[in-house]
């Protein structure tokens, strides 16, 4: 039941000129080590890619903060090389500093090296104060760049050297979203995380509560220790509680009846920090509310987070495109409009599911509105059934998909299929559904 949240890994003129790594190696020590470059200049990205590959490293590139957060939500990088300006004409380093602060807030152990213009000493100082481990000034010599990266990685705070290329287990808890609600949520997590008070994370299922709980733990002094998760619906919950220590993440306390809530109070060791995931704290008896919800961190429904659905959809496209081997898959503007205006059942998880399905069905890597329509799972079922050229199978598959899509709500499934409820019931009986 114990689970470790964190792996203990752990435009310029003439920026690149010369030798590979100071150790020139391409051996096991560095060959598994991946570095993230955040830079909007493809020429720089190509050149750094070559230099790092010659030194035995791998490079992932993000063209700006949005893509960077998405990549950082997927894996932990041994080091991050961050340019300080992204928009055309911007030179004050503010964009880079904001990105740096966000990355460090999400993952205090992130190893950041910033790239500044030759005259950017003020920016370099601000970046170091904000948590960068080092800076390089343009133009740089590749040998210096790699030496600084290697020194920064070696100075990692964790026990295992990132430069040793330890494989990534779990990505940092990165919350995608730029809405006011998400900015407030991040600020609250940063305030609450370090205090050993118990926290109740509230909100609709699928809205990201478990991710927020991880993020709170990541901001705590115990971040390097594993949390223990409990599903309070399980029969053996009381024995499990008694055997554990550290930080507890409790699921479904709000589903316990009054007697079980009192038993939970009796069984919770006094010294543990509890992070509870509940729909609302209303069903909690006052004493349990005091024990579990000293502070409430509310996760807003997706509909109340202006602009976040599109950022999340792009994030899920990147993940699914990578997972299903479909690089370059993207949402059309019209599809992003659908993402923005749809009320997603099951919140962020529902959106993620719709996007994954669309990525799979997008033959040409283009996700247009039709692929995002709620009935696209029905379409997918038809495609699958068509392969067998059996109309009976196709009809059954469509009905099954529509029922799944609408969580067995016959009225909604019938409407999606263009049938009356009675007609759907008759077919369900025929197919034994
Ligand atoms: N802001 C976010 N940024 C990135 N991913 C997110 C965000 N919110 C949710 N997700 C992803 O959506 C999915 C559902 O989130 P999560 O499991 O945290 O929801 P939940 O509210 O805990 O729901 P449940 O308790 O029903 O599992 C997960 O894959 C999670 O990583």
Specify the helix fraction band.
40-55%
Number of strands: 13
Sheet with most strands: 6 strands, mixed
Judging from the principal axes of the Cα atoms, what is the shape?
Answer: globular
The CATH topology assignment of the largest domain is Rossmann fold
CATH class wording of the largest domain: Alpha Beta
Q: Bound small molecules, which ones?
A: adenosine-5'-triphosphate
The gyration radius over C-alpha positions equals 25 Å
Number of helices: 19
Total number of domains:
4
Low-confidence stretches: 1-29, 157-168, 381-391
SSE-based structural type: alpha/beta
Arithmetic mean of pLDDT:
83
Strand order within the widest beta sheet: 1-8-9-10-7-11
Question: Termini, distance in Å?
Answer: 36 Å
- The CATH homologous superfamily name of the largest domain equals Response regulator
Portion of residues in beta strands equals 5-15%
CATH architecture of the largest domain: 3-Layer(aba) Sandwich
Describe the structure.
This protein is of the alpha/beta class and 433 residues long. Helices cover 45% and strands 12% of the residues. The chain has four domains: 2-164, Rossmann fold (3-Layer(aba) Sandwich); 180-302, Rossmann fold (3-Layer(aba) Sandwich); 307-373, Orthogonal Bundle (Helicase, Ruva Protein, domain 3), CATH 1.10.8.60; 377-431. The chain contains 19 helices and 13 strands. The longest helix has 16 residues, at 308-323. Residues 73, 175-177, 205-211, 277, 312, 348-349, 352 line the site of adenosine-5'-triphosphate. The site of adenosine-5'-triphosphate has 16 residues, from helix 8 and helix 14.
């Amino acid at each position: 039941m114990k689970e470790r949240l964190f792996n203990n890994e752990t435009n310029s003129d003439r920026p690149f000129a010369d030798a590979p790594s100071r150790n020139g190696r391409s051996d096991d020590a560095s060959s598994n080590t991946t570095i993230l470059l955040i830079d909007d200049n493809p020429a720089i990205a190509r050149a750094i890619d070559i230099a790092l590959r010659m030194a035995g490293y791998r490079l992932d590139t993000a063209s700006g903060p949005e893509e960077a957060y998405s990549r950082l939500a997927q894996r932990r990088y041994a080091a991050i090389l961050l340019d300080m300006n992204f928009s055309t004409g911007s030179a004050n380093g503010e964009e880079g500093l904001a990105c740096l602060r966000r990355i460090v807030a999400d993952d205090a152990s992130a190893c950041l090296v910033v790239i500044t213009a030759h005259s950017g000493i003020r920016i370099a100082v601000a970046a170091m104060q904000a948590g960068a481990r080092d800076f390089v000034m343009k133009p740089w010599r590749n040998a210096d760049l790699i030496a600084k990266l290697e020194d920064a990685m070696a100075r990692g705070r964790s026990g295992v050297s990132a430069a040793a290329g330890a494989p990534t287990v779990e990505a940092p808890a990165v919350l995608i979203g730029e809405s006011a609600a998400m900015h407030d949520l991040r600020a609250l997590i940063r305030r609450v995380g370090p205090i050993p008070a118990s926290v109740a994370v509230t909100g609709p299922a699928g809205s990201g509560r478990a991710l927020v709980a991880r993020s709170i733990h990541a901001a705590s002094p115990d971040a390097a220790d594993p949390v223990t998760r409990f599903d309070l619906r399980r029969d053996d919950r009381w024995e499990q509680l008694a055997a554990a220590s550290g930080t507890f993440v409790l699921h479904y306390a709000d589903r316990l009846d009054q007697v079980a809530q009192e038993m939970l109070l009796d069984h919770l060791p006094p010294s543990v920090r509890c992070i509870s995931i509940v729909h609302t704290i209303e069903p909690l008896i006052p004493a349990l509310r005091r024990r579990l919800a000293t502070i409430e961190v509310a996760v807003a429904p997706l509909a109340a987070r202006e602009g976040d659905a599109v950022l999340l959809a792009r994030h899920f496209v990147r993940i699914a495109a990578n997972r299903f081997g479909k690089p370059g898959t993207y949402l059309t503007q019209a599809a992003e409009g659908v993402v923005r205006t749809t009320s997603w059942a099951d919140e962020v998880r529902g959106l993620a599911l719709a996007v994954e399905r669309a990525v799979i069905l997008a033959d040409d890597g283009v996700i247009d509105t039709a692929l995002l329509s709620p009935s696209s799972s029905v379409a997918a079922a038809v495609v699958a059934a068509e392969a067998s050229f059996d109309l009976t199978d196709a009809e059954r598959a469509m009905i099954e998909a529509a029922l799944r899509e609408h969580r067995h709500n016959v009225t909604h499934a019938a409407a999606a299929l263009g049938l009356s409820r009675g007609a759907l019931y008759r077919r369900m009986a025929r197919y034994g559904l």
